[in-house]
Amino acid sequence: MRSSRVVTILLVEDDEVDVKALKWAFDKLKVANPLMVARDGIEALEMLRELPRPYLVITDINMPRMNGIELLRKIRESEQFRDSIVFVLTTSNDEQDKIDAYDLNVAGYMLKTDMGTSFQRAISLIDNYWKVVEFPERE
Amino acid sequence: MTDANRIRPKTLEDALRALDEAEAKLSAREDYETGIRRLTESVLRSEERFRTLAQGVPNHLLFLDTELRIVFANDVFLEASGWSKRQAVGLHISDVVGVERFMERQSYYERALAGETVAYDSTGAAGNDAGFFHFSYRPSFDESGNVRGIFSMATDISERRKVQLELEAKQAELLRSNKDLEQFAYVASHDLKAPLRAIELLVQWIVEGLAGYDTNNVQENLALLGKRTTRLNRLLDDLLAYSRAGRKVGAHRMADTHALVLDVVQMLDPPPTISISIDGQLPKFKTHPTPLEQVLRNLIGNAVKHHPGPEGRIVVSCKEEGDRYVYAIEDDGEGIPQQYAERVFEMFQTLKPRDQVEGSGMGLAIVNRIVQWQGGRVWFEQAPSGRGTVFKFQWKKNQPVAATVETKTCEAAG
Question: Are A92 and B186 inside 8 Å of each other by CB?
């Protein structure tokens, strides 16, 4: 049965301007999903506990305290959050980061490259993604 | 001729026989003497060869008897030890190296006396306590296979050792610098690009805002643009400071570190609600004051910058520990969880988003690099009061007057 509920998006990003850029891309593409923002991995883990399902996580890699790869590791180790769908949206074009991310089963690894358009592409992909794919029914 | 050999002929036959016998004896004796002479010559030649060889080698060479007393010592040894040949011969080896060293090496001598060839490297030989030597003990056997003594040879490998240690240090430095470079490439692609990308985005929004496309706040975006430009500038400055850390170290001179800290505090100009004091008197010694000041400025500056306020107390102190001083900068701020013990000293690492506390994340990386350059260590502990952090670092009293060559080159080039 198709879940009728709207997907909440948790954005894990320490850069204020990137948060704005993402919100701006949401506006441009008229994506109205609820958006939550965590400033690093530790905040993200705290917010996940409160987050209504279904949800999607978009995380940066380089962040204070707990980076995106460490956050992914924690998520996959956790009984409660291991099934989370996580996208990586980062400036890191480092091969090792990509390998680590896919090893931790990310749904996609996306680069912040140029002005704005990479955000729009990422958001339009994620917008289509949650509309097309089925999420497991789970509380 | 002696009386005993005098011939007293009775008859002619007797006389002839005696003459024959005498001739035979004489010839036998001549043969014998020739033999002895040849043997002596051969021994002398061999001895001569041995001596030439023994004197020719640039090493200490001794022949010790089974009691470990010197039977033979070559000139290199005599010269190094300052003994004459007469003084040296008969000395026990423990008189040569000292009882303590002898005890350390006794087992090697015992093994050699038991017929084994032994080799090892150690510090200190006759007349050169600090030098590094390669020792070899080779037993010498008699015809029946018993050890009759030991050839002991000591080769001065101080130079080789020095070169080897230098090589190892260079290799470690190379590994570290490669790791730095790798890390640099990584952060350059993220931390330096991030503000630049933000600037691009902001400019785009401002343009759109001005054109009236949307309701973006131009004022706010312009302010952000300014902040990002400053941040990028700071990142580049700090990156340069990092690459110079431990390279441009300035003069080596007497420094009053008490006055130095007072200067640093004055320059930092902390808010009046934060008090900075010195516990006791900080030492005065000969060092490179410029890098030391850089370390103190970073650590005291951090304590001020990251203090949650409103009122704060920062105390600087110093303790002498052997060949180094240990400086401590204690604050009563938020404290740092021990799990970040390593990460805080890495490049571009911050514990708070830069949008909350503006910082390059390079300060402690620079501190770490400077402190390591002069052979020390930097770390942090929880403050004894349970609130806040104490940063401690070791500073050597006798630093290498390093990097002067590079400084000169730079000056010449500049």
Answer: yes
The string of pLDDT tens digits covering residues A92-107 is 888 889 999 999 999 9
- Per domain, the residue ranges of chain A are 8-114
**Spatial CA neighbour of B366 closest among B337, B345, B391:** B345
Our CA-based measurement puts residue A39 at a distance from the nearest CA of chain B, in whole angstroms, of 7
Q: How far apart are CA A123 and CA A117, in angstroms?
A: 10
CB contact under 8 A, A16 and B193: no
Residue B283: asked if its preceding bond is cis (omega within 30°), the reply is no
Q: How would you label B37-55 residue by residue, b for 16+ Cβ within 10 Å and e otherwise?
A: eeeeeeeeeeeeeeeeebe
Q: Which of B190, B201, B350 sits opposite A17 (nearest CB)?
A: B201
| CATH class of the domain whose range is A8-114 | alpha beta
- Residues B217-267 have pLDDT tens digits of 888 888 889 989 988 888 888 888 888 887 777 888 899 999 999 999 998
Cα B169 to Cα B166: distance, rounded to the nearest angstrom? 5
Please, what are the domains in chain B? 12-161 (3.30.450.20), 163-413 (3.30.565.10)
The Cβ of residue B299 has, within 10 Å, a number of other Cβ atoms equal to 24
B380: tokens are 């942090």
pTM equals 0.61
> What amino acid occupies position B177?
S
Supply B342's token pair. 């390593």
ipTM of the complex model:
0.74
Question: Of the candidates A17, A40, A114, which has its C-beta nearest B198's C-beta?
Answer: A17
What CA–CA distance (Å, rounded) separates B262 from B266?
6
A82 touches chain B (CB under 8 A): no
Please report residues of A whose CB lies closer than 8 A to that of B216.
24
- Rounded to whole angstroms, the Cα distance separating A35 from A66 reads 21
CB proximity A120 to B under 8 Å: no
Structural contact between residues B323 and B199, judged by C-beta atoms closer than 8 angstroms:
no
Decide if B350 and A21 are in contact by the 8 Å CB cutoff. Answer: no
Residue B194: which of A24, A91, A114 has the nearest Cβ? Answer: A91
Dump the DSSP string for A84-97.
-EEEEEES---HHH
What does the alpha-carbon distance between residue A75 and residue B314 come to, in Å, rounded to a whole number? Answer: 39
Backbone angles phi, psi at B269, to 5 degrees: 50, 65
